[in-house]
Task: structure prediction
Amino acid sequence: MSATYRIEILDSDPPVVALVKGRDHWALCELVNAGEHGCTPIERVGPRWSAYVFNLRRLGLIIETIREAHGGTYAGHHARYVLRSRVRFLDGSAVGMAA
Result:
């Protein structure tokens, strides 16, 4: 069973307190650490980034999806996710978690 962490979404009026856990928490930490550059499933490997982003958006977080092309053997497109909401971790959960 994974721990549950409290976050405060500061862009809401009034600010909203939400609970996040497991891989959703990991993804949020990765987005916070990535800052304006954002992150992709290629740079920060996770099996279900789109699901994590979907779950975080349901909490009220604003996450921009930027579509980017990539080359290589399996050329195509991938998503770059950029957190646009201001978030505060209320319980001291580590923002700099390792992947």
The chain has a mean pLDDT of 88. The longest strand covers residues 63-70. Helices lie at 22-34, 49-58. The two ends are 18 Å apart (CA to CA).
